[in-house]
Amino acid sequence: MQAPFRPVTHVRHVAMAVPNYKEAVDFYQDLWGLERVADDSGLSFWGTPADPEQYVVRLREDEKKGIDLVAYAARSAADVDQLAERLVAGNIKLDREPGSLDTPGGGYGVRFYDPDGVLVEVSADVAPKPFRALEERESIPQNLSHFVLNTPNLEAMKGFYEEYLGLRLTDWLGNVLCFMRAGSQHHILGLGRGRHTAINHVSFEMRGIDEYMRGSGRLLRAGQEVLWGPGRHTAGDNTFSYFLDPNGNVHEYTTSLEVVDDENHEPRTYDMKPETQDQWGFGGAITERMLAAQANDPDQKLWASSPV
Ligand SMILES: [Fe+2]
Fold first, then answer.
1. Which candidate, 225, 254, 227, places its Cα nearest to that of 238?
2. What spacing in Å lies between the alpha carbon of 199 and ligand 1's midpoint?
3. Is the pLDDT of residue 282 over 70?
4. 291 CA → ligand 1 middle, Å
5. Ligand 1 centroid distance, CA of 254 (Å)
6. CATH number of the domain at 8-124, out of 3.90.79.10, 3.10.310.10, 3.10.180.10, 3.40.250.10?
């Protein structure tokens, strides 16, 4: 039997178009703990010292708020080509044919739209940057953990990411959020049922529980409102503290995401009880503030090619 085609390994970065650009730069630099690795006027790339990915967030100043693209890593250039062939055969709209990339780290990638019109990039052979292990108590993000998207077409979106990117369903939260994996990490992508397509949240992995608490406390002390947390989910078994960035996109500090048996895992469905949503009991049930924030504004960049 032929092995299933599963080209993707992880999320490389989320590229966002933001109206409040300057404020977002200050947020990442002074509070969230990312490092500016490259910039141009109104465009900046943000990495972490602990991650070989060139950058995990890209910000671009724009009057309209939305997702410029979400980039995923592919195993090889051959897989990028095979993915492109499959997309074309499936009448999926390509934004850019497979070819070399001119963003930091270069590489070889293809761009296309998912069923909601979110621009997706899948790339291979991107040069890694130097990196080091975070030190004990160093409370800045280690890497991008996962990305969650709201969609009014959850089943179609889930089917698309399974069929083309080779993601697998790990678990459901009620019937409103599904968690998709590329390997043994519980999820790299979450799809939430929403009235419109938008960023639900972007999640950053911290070194450990201590660093996750220290980072969360740093934001609290700086006057940031914690939308929900600290807590520990049951689906994914990861810790959570959710904050709002200056453009109204929810950001999460997390750590200790569950590792599953990629080949043999049977999807589970978790209920929405407060004790399931937060095992610890500090965060409790999801808050009204979090519900409103994660619904977010309708994405204004759907079906739009990214200028970068
Ligand atoms: Fe999350």
1. 254
2. 11
3. yes
4. 13
5. 7
6. 3.10.180.10
pLDDT tens-place string over residues 93-103:
899 999 999 99
Torsion of CA 44, 68, 252, 74, to 10 degrees: -100
54-70 tens-digit pLDDT: 999 999 999 999 999 99
Residues surrounding ion ligand 1 at CB below 5 Å? 203, 252
Alpha helices, DSSP H only, in the chain?
21-26, 77-89, 154-163, 209-221, 274-277, 288-295
Question: CA–CA separation, 239 vs 229, rounded Å?
Answer: 8
Which tens digit of pLDDT belongs to each residue from 248-271? 999 999 999 999 999 999 999 999
Contacts of 173 (CB under 8 A, 6+ apart): 179, 235, 269, 270, 272
